[in-house]
Amino acid sequence: MTIDKGIHIKNIYYMLSYAFRILKQEDYKKVAGEDFDKVHDLFADILAKGVSRQIRQGLYREYVPMQEDLSVMRGKMNINETLRLQVQREQKLACEFDEFSEDNIYNQILKVTIHRLIHADDVDEKRKQALRKLMLYFGNVRLIQTDHIPWNRLIYQRNNLNYELLLNICYLVLNYLLQTTDDGQYKVIEFSDEQMNMLFQCFVYNYYDQEHKELKVSAPKMKWSDDNGSEDTIIKYLPQMETDIVLKNKLNDKTLIIDTKYYGKIMSQKYDKPTLLSSHMYQIFAYVKNMDKGSTGNVSGLLLYAKTEEEVFPEGKPFVIGGNSIGARTLDLNQEFDVISKQLDMIAEEYFQKC
After folding, report:
1. 175: which residues sit within 8 A by CB, 6+ positions away?
2. Disulfide: which of 23, 70, 133, 292 matches 299 by Cβ 3.0-4.6 Å?
3. Positions in the chain whose pLDDT score sits under 70
4. CA 264, CA 269: separation in Å to the nearest integer?
5. HSE toward the beta carbon, residue 229, CA cutoff 13 A
6. What CA–CA distance (Å, rounded) separates 161 from 219?
7. Can you give the pLDDT at residue 1?
8. What was the pLDDT predicted at 310?
9. 162-191 burial by CB neighbour count: b if 16+ within 10 A, else e?
10. Neighbouring C-alpha atoms within 13 Å toward the C-beta of 233
């Protein structure tokens, strides 16, 4: 099955598997063999398998600050609260202490995501049943509101590294896939172009990083080339150039800058002629010329689009402008993944075949 713009749902799994290598482990391999009608079914299945695996290993625990009124001293005393208890003739001490607990933000995010998938209208019943069984293990974990989850403050270390994939799936589900209806149920919405563009870029980057060890893969920020070399020029006001993917052959100076694009529409119309968006061409050209400061011609550029259902799309040999090769092509995500991987391999082969 496919989602918007003709992406085979199972390919979302493969794209994620390059972003998160843990998906290539044994527990997740069954996902690749299943059929999914909806992308949230895919995520529900990944969560079911991943959380089940985590439960077998033990849910992540960390020290959580607690406050409790006790008959004996534990931790340190909250003086003001203890005085309040004494005024109320309560023979207890207000104690503050840290407890090694499963009730932490990591497990709370898992629980609320599982809860919402269970109550979503369009999630397959078989996967809901699997998630319901997992909820039994979260009895000591609070069901939190999702409005103020500190996503940018989550830290992954050796003890909770397996949570990184799971919580990223939770982030996608809670922020992009589910929307609350008037009756309190959750309906499914689709990915935004922005989110799919990020996934597409991350996938292509990690594919080359993992499958082409002969290449150095990076995403550097570049400075504008300024022949004057003065800090007083207007160059300090120009926007920073942030590349998506830079492939560099380790044996020589051949370099390919790839700018990935995921849009509903690739081509524009000008005088009844389909053309690439000028802003895209200017962008890749600026990247190439500013990286190739010595005008060696060893730096090439490629606009790589996720293929849409448009009748006309960019294909063909790259052209040379100012001594540098510039090209554009599409990657069809609505096909078997081995075909997609061959297309990516072919790009590397074509641009570095003379190396």
Report:
1. none
2. 292
3. 1-7, 22-30, 32-33, 178-192, 222-240, 264-274, 308-316, 354-355
4. 15
5. 0
6. 24
7. 45
8. 54
9. bbebbbebbbbbbebbbeeeeeeebebeeb
10. 9
CB 246 within 8 A of CB 209: no
CA distance 122 to 13: 19
Q: Is 115 helix (H, G, I), strand (E, B) or coil?
A: helix
CATH topology for the 197-352 domain: Trna Endonuclease; Chain: A, domain 1 (3.40.1350)
Give the start-to-end residue ranges of the domains of the chain: 2-61+103-191, 62-101, 197-352
Residue with tokens 């909806």: 38
Q: Is 121 exposed, middle or buried (0-12, 13-18, 19+ CB in 10 A)?
A: exposed
Q: Tokens standing for 91?
A: 């023979």
Q: Answer whether 0.85 is exceeded by the pTM.
A: no
Q: Nearest-5° angle of CA 7, CA 325, CA 285?
A: 75
DSSP state of 307: P
| H helix runs in the chain, sequence order | 9-19, 29-32, 39-57, 79-87, 105-118, 125-135, 163-172, 193-211, 278-291, 337-352
SS3 track for 124-181: CHHHHHHHHHHHHHHCCCCCCCCCCCCHHHCCCCHHHCCHHHHHHHHHHHHHHHEEEC
3-state DSSP assignment of residue 243: coil
Quick check: 248 and 255 in contact, CB under 8 A?
Answer: yes
- The CB density around residue 132, as the number of other CB atoms within 10 Å, is 12
**DSSP state letter for 298:** -
The answer to whether 143 and 107 have CB atoms below 8 angstroms apart is no
Q: What are 35-80's pLDDT values in tens digits?
A: 777 788 888 999 999 999 999 999 999 988 878 787 887 878 888 8
Closest CA to 13 of 167, 4, 35: 35
Residue 202 identity (one-letter amino acid): C
Q: Is 221 exposed, middle or buried (0-12, 13-18, 19+ CB in 10 A)?
A: exposed
Is residue 207 within 8 Å of residue 18, measured between CB atoms? Answer: yes
